[in-house]
Structures are given as structure tokens and as C-alpha cells.
Design a protein that fits this description.
heterodimer, A: alpha/beta, 6-stranded antiparallel sheet, 15 strands, disordered N terminus, B: alpha+beta, 8-stranded mixed sheet, 4-stranded antiparallel sheet, 10 helices, 23% strand
Chain lengths: 285, 337
């Protein structure tokens, strides 16, 4: 298994959250919003550290809490953020949030991408839709430590141009010449002069070499399924491919029981797993 | 060894109840003859001739408990929120547990008593556990559902107990298992005794050796699981009465428009909604898949992660299952595959 130290969890009751305040809300798409947050306690905010891929519980006291990937990079010390798709009770309440509103946060949780092990390697990142949330944190982390890594290829796709998140970041990635960034949409549409096609096929067209490389993919299950097939066709081995798993979670600390896949708990053993890890799990995804 | 005379029991209970919250097996006045662990009331005799319907896990993991309360307040146009964690618990004594109940506490400790910081453990469990003394009544009889002899030490299992009381003519032989238990039986209610403890019962036994490896191997055999669980109603009786089933839910309740509580309550992996995601996707959408997870968790995943089998053979899930599903038959079926 990928063994990555869990960092940052306080020694006090981890089921009791810290109050935090919304500093900014960004409307990403029709059903995705990013909420930027600061912990109310300045010491907590100052000491808050995490790594890309780690998750947190964002809650609204009275409505409940849900698990999301942290979508900001660790280097961003002014705030941290979650990007949330509106689907159920808690996410709908999160979509009502405005600047200055109070929320509850338990973070960070889970294991991060093993970025230290990837030093010196070429990195291929393939994201789809809201699956870009943990990958945004990762890409920004890699850019913060650009000299430590080889070539960086980033393919980000969504159904339509309106479904692509992180517009400001995409502009930055377009401009940089040390990232091969391709954004793509599923079908031709007017006003879009960029790439058209599904993430797996665009990835195969781009054809990054599997030599000394790792590939990270996150997105809707069907996209992950076909991206994994494409990567294997391109010669990537299971140990070179990483993804993050999602499960319904409550506690986030391996106690409440619901996110296990066999003996592994997505909240504490994951959410980051290599494809080799996943192949060792019972087929219960 | 020490001796507790029958006529000294009430005085002992009075003494214990003075400094602690004392829980004993108590008959609920219902048609089913339900016996549960309840706070002891002077004048009532503990029910020691029958098993309790519910286990004693409620002392450590209440069916519903408050994690914290919160209050929103508005001052000079600025909203703030205050979070107040749940406070301390006090000394608690569990009198009249069985060896399987006490062992279950030890089994749960492996997960819930992990030190905070490294792994996570559970703060509220830990506080209650450190304040808990367990006085166990050794079993000299059993019923058809008992199967603790399947496990190492069987009815003589002492882990989780502070005091072991062996029933004998006119009272109980008392053995201190821990220092805390030794101190307790050093008191005036007990006298020195040279009597040998009685023979303990031997219950039905199921061969559980190798299940930790076998269960993942037969995971994909869904036909077996469907047949094995055809009777299951997914009602959750087994999980709620089980002394080691610990899964929980977390949810918020408002007490007013400004104040509320975050609570946790027992949940069960046998319920459809337990793992169902907002998208509608459910990794365990059928009873067979959920029951497979329950057995896998008890006899493979928990042993792999925590080094303990998440079952002590108390038989409650067999005694009360409305569909007559017998976990021993399922385990035997797995072994025979």
C-alpha cells in the first residue's frame, strides 16, 4: 500500500470541528462553487498544514457536514478552499453560503499524493469536471516546487466550456511554458476554439511517455475507468497510476465504518490510492 | 480468591452506587422478558439467571450521544458561532456482564483506545472507558445460541473484566483480574475463600481458524452470499444487539433557531442508506453485499487491522433474529467452500 504519513490532525477530539469563516465564494459553474475559508482561531489558521490530496469535513452547524478534497495548495496561507458540487442537503446549504458566514471544518484528513516519491519524475494529470478539485491543489503544489519534477502534462476536460472550473488558474496554466496544459470539452460548441474530445482520447493523442512518469487521474467514475484503460494501453504500469476514491463518510477518521473497501478505509488509508492498491482490494467500488 | 456471600450482594451494590454510576442487568416489564443493563435502583435484584437482550456497549457507545453543542450569536451585525464539546463523564461500574460482554469491550478498545494524534481513537469512548470497572459473572450454564467456545479461552476469557465472580452455593467466588478489581474485592463485603472456582460451561463451537484469509478469497462468490442471506430482512437487530458492532452516524439537530447539537447514534452496515451516496450510487446495494461486509469486517478486516476478531460468540444475533439467520451456519458455510 501507499504509506503516507497523516499530518496535521490535532490531538484533541477529532470529531469536534473548528469554526471557520467564509472569506470568498467563487461561482465556478452552474452547480459548482468554491468556498474560501479561514479558521476563526488565528493560531489554528497559522498552524494549518496539509498536502495535496488530503480531505476535510466542511459543515454547516445545523445542516451537517460532508467530505471534500481541499482544492487550494498548501502554499496558500491566507485561506484554504473546498470546491463543492450541489447534489444533496449539505452541499445545497454550502451553495447558500456568502462571505462572512460561519462554517465548521475538520481537516486535514486522509493520506496525500506521495509527491516526495515523485521527485524527478514526469507528471501526467488527467482531470474531469469536479474531479479537478484535488488535482488543482496538486498541480499548484507541483508548480510551487517546479524544479523538483520533470515534464508536467495536464489534461482537464468537462462536458461544455461552462462546466470547466478554475478559470483564473486555467489562464495561468495556459500562459506558462513549463506546463503542457490542454483543456477539452466533450463536443464542438460555438465560442470554443480549444480542444474537443474526451479526456482519455486526448490523453492518448498527447501520448506522454510512461518512462520515469506517474499519472494521476480524478473525475467521474466513467472517465476514470476509460482513462485507466488508456494509460495501460500507453504502457503505464499499475504502480505508476494514482487516483482518489470517494465514499460516503461521516467521521473521516476510520471509526464510523462506512467507507471501507475490504480492510482499507478510504478516509484514513486513502483517499489517494495507486491502481496497484486498488487491484488488491475486493471489487466493491 | 475471595468470597461474596449472597446476602452481602445488596450491601455491596449500595456501596458501589455511592461513588459510581452502577449498571446491572435489569428486567424490563414487557411480554418478551427483555433484560437490559440499567442504572441500578436500591431494592432491585440484578437479573443473573438470563442473558441480557442488549449488550453493555451502550455504556461506552450510547445509542445516541451529544458530540458538542453550538450556538450562533449576532453581535453588532457580525455573526459568530460557539462550539461547546461534551464534558467529563464519571466513574461507572458494570455489574453482571458476561465474559463475552467484557471481552467485547477489550475488542473495541483496540480501535477506540488508539492514542489520539497518531491513529485517531475516540475521545468520548476513551474517557468513559478509563472510568469503567467491569464485574463479570462467569458462565456455568449457556443456551443454544451461545458459541463463545469458538474463541480462545471461551467462557474463561478474562480480558475486559476487572473482577470475575464464579457462582457457587450461597454466593460467588471472586477473582481480581486487574489492580482496580483487586482493590474492589479487598473490601469488607468480601471474605477470604479457599473454595475452588466451579467448572465453566462449554458452549457450541464454530471453527473460525483461517477466516481472515478465506473471506477475501471467497469475496466474489456472490451466489454463496445470496443463498446464505436469503432470509435476512436487513432489519439491523443483529447489529444493535451485538456487543462489538460499533458503526455510527453523525447528524445535527437544532434546539432553537440559534442553538443546536451535533449527535452521533448507532448505525448499521446492514442498512441500505448506510453507504448510499447522494448520487444514488451504493457500493453495497444488496442485502447479500451488506451482510458479506458485516461478516468480512468481523472475521477478516478488523482482525487484519486491529488484531482482534470482532465477535465474542455471545449469540445475541442468533437468539433474536426475526428471520432465524444463524451466523454460525454462515461461518461454517464459508469454511466449507
Amino acid at each position: 500500500m501507499t504509506t503516507i504519513a497523516r499530518t496535521g490532525m490535532k490531538a484533541t477530539n477529532p470529531l469536534v470541528p473548528e469554526p471557520a469563516t467564509v472569506s470568498e465564494v467563487i461561482i465556478e459553474t452552474g452547480n459548482i462553487r468554491t468556498v474560501r475559508l479561514t479558521f476563526d482561531d488565528t493560531e489554528t489558521m497559522k498552524n494549518f498544514t496539509f498536502l495535496p490530496g488530503q480531505i476535510g469535513q466542511l459543515g454547516i452547524l445545523g445542516a451537517g457536514e460532508s467530505t471534500f478534497a481541499i482544492s487550494s495548495p498548501p502554499s496558500q496561507k491566507e485561506y484554504f478552499q473546498f470546491s463543492v458540487m450541489k447534489t444533496g442537503v449539505v452541499t445545497s446549504a454550502i451553495h447558500e453560503l456568502a462571505e462572512g458566514d460561519r462554517v465548521s471544518v475538520r481537516a486535514p484528513m486522509g493520506c496525500a499524493f506521495p509527491t516526495d516519491d515523485w521527485k524527478g519524475k514526469n507528471i501526467i494529470v488527467a482531470g474531469g469536471g469536479i474531479g479537478m478539485a484535488p488535482l488543482r491543489s496538486l498541480v499548484m503544489y507541483l508548480l510551487d516546487h517546479r524544479a523538483d519534477y520533470g515534464e508536467l502534462t495536464l489534461v482537464y476536460g468537462a462536458r461544455t466550456p461552462e462546466d470547466l472550473c478554475f478559470e483564473a488558474d486555467r489562464d495561468v496554466w495556459e500562459q506558462r511554458d513549463d506546463v503542457n496544459f490542454i483543456s477539452t470539452i466533450d463536443n464542438v460548441c460555438s465560442g470554443w476554439d480549444g480542444c474537443v474530445g474526451l479526456v482519455p482520447s486526448i490523453l492518448e493523442d498527447t501520448a506522454p511517455s510512461p518512462d520515469n512518469s506517474v499519472a494521476i487521474t480524478c473525475g467521474p467514475p466513467v472517465m476514470i475507468k476509460f482513462t485507466l484503460q488508456s494509460l495501460e494501453r500507453m504502457g503505464f504500469r499499475e504502480e505508476q497510476i494514482y487516483t482518489t476514491l470517494e465514499r460516503r463518510m461521516k467521521c473521516g477518521i476510520g471509526l464510523c465504518g462506512r467507507c471501507n473497501v475490504g480492510a482499507k478505509y478510504v478516509c484514513t488509508d486513502g483517499p489517494v490510492f495507486s491502481l496497484a492498491d486498488i487491484r488488491d482490494m475486493p471489487d466493491e467500488l | 480468591m475471595r468470597f461474596l456471600a449472597e446476602e452481602k450482594l445488596e450491601a455491596l451494590l449500595h456501596l458501589l452506587a455511592k461513588s459510581s454510576s452502577l449498571w446491572t442487568p435489569t428486567a424490563i416489564e414487557d411480554a418478551a422478558g427483555t433484560v437490559t443493563f440499567e442504572p441500578w435502583k436500591p431494592g432491585t435484584a440484578p437479573v443473573l439467571d438470563r442473558f441480557t437482550t442488549l449488550s453493555a456497549k451502550e455504556l461506552l457507545l450510547p445509542a445516541t450521544e451529544k458530540l458538542f453543542s453550538f450556538t450562533y450569536s449576532l453581535s453588532e451585525g457580525e455573526e459568530s458561532v460557539e462550539i461547546e464539546p461534551e464534558g467529563q463523564t464519571g466513574e461507572t461500574i458494570l455489574f453482571g456482564a458476561r465474559a463475552c460482554d467484557a471481552k467485547a469491550i477489550k475488542v473495541l478498545d483496540a480501535l477506540f483506545m488508539q492514542p489520539a494524534g497518531e491513529a485517531y481513537g475516540d475521545d468520548q469512548y476513551r474517557r468513559r472507558r478509563l472510568d469503567l470497572t467491569v464485574i463479570t459473572i462467569a458462565c456455568t450454564t449457556c443456551d443454544a445460541a451461545c458459541f463463545c467456545s469458538s474463541f480462545e479461552n471461551g467462557p474463561a476469557e478474562k480480558s475486559g473484566s476487572d473482577v470475575f465472580l464464579y457462582p457457587v452455593e450461597g454466593g460467588w467466588i471472586a477473582e481480581g483480574i486487574t489492580d482496580r478489581g483487586g482493590d474492589l474485592i479487598g473490601g469488607d463485603s468480601f471474605t477470604d475463600s479457599g473454595i475452588d472456582p466451579p467448572e465453566l460451561v462449554v458452549t457450541r463451537s464454530v471453527d473460525i481458524a483461517g477466516l481472515q484469509e478465506k473471506l477475501p478469497e471467497i469475496f466474489a462468490n456472490i451466489d454463496f452470499w445470496q443463498e446464505a442471506t436469503a432470509k435476512c430482512l436487513s432489519c439491523g437487530y443483529c447489529t444493535y444487539t451485538c456487543p462489538t458492532c460499533y458503526c455510527f452516524n453523525i447528524f445535527d439537530e437544532m434546539r432553537s433557531d440559534r442553538e443546536g447539537e451535533r449527535l452521533r447514534g448507532w448505525d448499521a452496515c446492514i442498512f441500505n442508506l448506510y453507504t448510499r451516496e447522494t448520487s444514488g450510487h451504493n457500493p453495497r446495494p444488496t442485502i447479500a453485499k451488506r451482510y458479506r461486509n458485516r461478516i468480512g469486517h468481523k472475521f477478516s478486516y478488523y482482525p487484519a487491522n486491529q488484531g482482534e476478531t470482532l465477535c465474542t460468540g455471545c449469540g445475541r444475533c442468533i437468539r433474536g433474529c426475526p428471520a432465524g439467520l444463524d451466523i454460525r451456519d454462515v461461518l461454517t458455510g464459508v469454511k466449507e467452500l
